[in-house]
Amino acid sequence: MSARNSLALRRLLDEVGPVDAVGIEERVAKYGTRSIKKNAKLFALNLAVTMVDLTTLEGKDTPGKVASLCHKALRPHDDLAIPQTAAVCVYPAMVKHAKKIVGGTAVKIASVATAFPSGQAPLKTRLAEVRSAVADGADEIDMVINRGAFLCGELDLVQDEISAVIEACGDTTLKVIFETSELETYDNIRAASFLAMRVLRPNDFIKTSTGKTSSNATLGNNQVMLEAIRDHFLATGVEIAMKPAGGIRTAKQAITFLIAVKETLGDNWLNNRRYRFGASALLNDLVRQLIKEKTGHYQAPYSFSEASGSY
């Protein structure tokens, strides 16, 4: 990293303020101690279902697999009281196949782009991928930032690339993925959040992870990003949305993440326009818990269709 680039990152870190890492860990540890009563638990479970971006991002994805995923998003269980998910998330080549199933419904089509998950492709190639996904019917684009450029202090480059993707998106919602494990520190996660939010539009998202590294969404990095969203909103009035992704597999985890949202940002963020879960396995556990709350019994795991994916 050149001295000039190092200074640019240091200046941004000084501007947005440091993160009290010990304070973050102490705060998120308390979220798991909250007592959730039956009605509140039912509300949280149903809400979490509506926030799921049901995901498949594998090299062996096929139109048939994507169709199955879409049908599951539209009807997670035979019990029609269980709501639909927020979106299905697929590779750009699969957008047109998803559109055949969920097009015209409330379930959105999200597509990863910009050389996901590495982001290591020429910008013109990444922008072409975004435009192609949008043209095929994507309602939302999940992009990855150039983490190497960020860590080298090339902040103008990172921000300019986000702006270019926004332009390529048109009216399509953008989610900016940081790959938090590669940003290494809470201070860097906070700085990246502000760098992105300063060019994002209201209700665009910042997102933790691709789901392709060994460490993905944690309550800690989620909390750092929620607090950045709060501070940005208080300074600008712009409401940025949030998506933790990767490693959230149980209903208990999801409810704890929702407690973090409520206590940090309030009820205005407790909807799928402003908060999502990037997940696959999570949906089955949410449905399983809902059925248990209704019947008093757990259904066997084989009662639920698989929603395989990389999250």
- The counted number of beta strands is 8
CATH topology group:
TIM Barrel
Mean pLDDT: 93
Tell me the CATH superfamily: Aldolase class I
Measured by DSSP, the beta-strand proportion falls in 5-15%
The helix-and-strand class reads: alpha/beta
Q: In percent, how helical is the residue content? A: 40-55%
Placed side by side, the strands forming the largest sheet appear as 7-6-5-4-3-2-1-8
What general form does the structure show? globular
- What's the CATH architecture name? Alpha-Beta Barrel
CATH class: Alpha Beta
Give me the Rg, rounded. 19 Å
Number of helices: 13
How many independent structural domains? 1
**H/E series, N to C?**
HHHEHEHEHEHHEHHEHEHEH
Q: Flag low-confidence runs.
A: 307-311
N- and C-termini, Cα separation = 32 Å
| Sheet with most strands | 8 strands, parallel
Walkthrough of the structure:
- The chain has one domain (3-303): Alpha-Beta Barrel (TIM Barrel), CATH 3.20.20.70.
- Helices cover 50% and strands 11% of the residues.
- The chain is built from 13 helices and 8 strands.
- It has an 8-stranded parallel sheet with strand order 7-6-5-4-3-2-1-8.
- Helix 1 (3-16) packs across helix 10 and helix 2 packs across helix 11 (219-236).
- It starts with a helix and ends in a 16-residue tail after the last helix.
